[in-house]
């Protein structure tokens, strides 16, 4: 999923490109609620997220992407234009995160770029090493979302419940759903076998 940066002028940045099955308009509408994107990062645990206005957010989260768990307490200002969203951080080693929606044939790609402030080695422990895992998580989510979004109330359930769970809780629930589905299938097969005897 890694690819050339669409902003090569950034000399201190990391990025990931995520293929989706969504069209440009649908993907950009999804991304404008940036809380969804941040909460789908499997290494971030949120303690607080409050959108004070359309473009102003206060947030506190823990980053578990390296051996040292660190907490970010920051204000985020959003700039939204032409299929691009820029989240500017008031504090921390990361200065900006860009979410860029690009057409790709009949569908669209999401490019995420984390831009860092120029700083010394003392801040290396705070570098967010989750971008590749974030991209993989979003890629998996968008594959499911492209099918589920047409089901009534699915958007509401995703926004109000699924995304707000911690990454660990989402994994546990997913495993439970898979196990339950397998048990139901096994039970149906057993009933069919017994009915034929």
Concise summary:
This protein is α+β, with helices and mostly antiparallel strands and 197 residues long. Helix content is 36%, strand content 32%. A 7-stranded antiparallel beta sheet has the order 1-7-6-5-4-3-2.
Give a structural overview.
- By secondary structure, the protein is of the alpha+beta class.
- Helix content is 36%, strand content 32%.
- The chain is built from 5 helices and 7 strands; from the N terminus they run βααββββββααα.
- It has helices spanning 24-31, 34-39, 131-148, 154-162, 167-195; strands at 13-19, 44-53, 56-63, 70-81, 84-89, 94-104, 107-116.
- A 7-stranded antiparallel sheet has the order 1-7-6-5-4-3-2.
- A hairpin with a 2-residue loop joins β2 and β3.
- The relative contact order is 0.17.
- The model has no long low-confidence stretch (mean pLDDT 84).
Per DSSP E runs of 2 or more residues, the count of β-strands stands at 7
Q: Can you list the strand order of the major beta sheet?
A: 1-7-6-5-4-3-2
The average pLDDT value, as a whole number, equals 84
**Unreliable stretches covering 5 or more consecutive residues:** none
Main sheet specs: 7 strands, antiparallel
Beta-strand content estimate: 25-35%
Q: N- to C-terminal separation?
A: 52 Å
Helical content stands at: 25-40%
Total count of helical runs of at least 4 residues: 5
Q: Mind telling me the C-alpha Rg?
A: 19 Å
How would you classify the helix and strand content by structural class? alpha+beta
Please state the overall shape, judged from the principal axes of the Cα atoms. globular
Along the chain, the helix and strand elements come as: EHHEEEEEEHHH
């Amino acid at each position: 999923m890694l690819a050339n940066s669409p902003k090569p002028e950034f000399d201190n940045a990391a990025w990931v490109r995520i293929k989706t099955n969504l069209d440009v308009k649908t993907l950009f509408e999804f991304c404008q609620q940036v809380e969804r994107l941040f909460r789908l990062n499997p290494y971030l645990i949120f303690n607080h997220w409050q959108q004070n206005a359309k473009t102003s957010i206060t947030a506190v989260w823990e980053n578990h992407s390296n051996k040292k768990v660190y907490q970010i307490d920051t204000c985020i200002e959003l700039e939204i234009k032409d299929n691009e969203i820029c989240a500017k951080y008031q504090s921390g080693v990361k200065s900006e995160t860009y979410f860029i929606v690009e057409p790709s044939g009949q569908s669209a790609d999401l490019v995420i770029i984390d831009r860092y402030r120029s700083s010394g080695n003392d801040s290396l422990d705070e570098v967010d090493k989750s971008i590749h895992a974030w991209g993989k998580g979003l890629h998996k989510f968008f594959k499911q979302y492209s099918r589920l979004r047409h089901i009534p109330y699915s958007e509401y359930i995703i926004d109000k419940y699924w995304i707000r769970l911690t990454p660990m809780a989402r994994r546990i629930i997913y495993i439970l759903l898979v196990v339950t589905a397998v048990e139901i299938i096994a039970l149906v097969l057993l009933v069919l076998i017994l009915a034929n005897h």
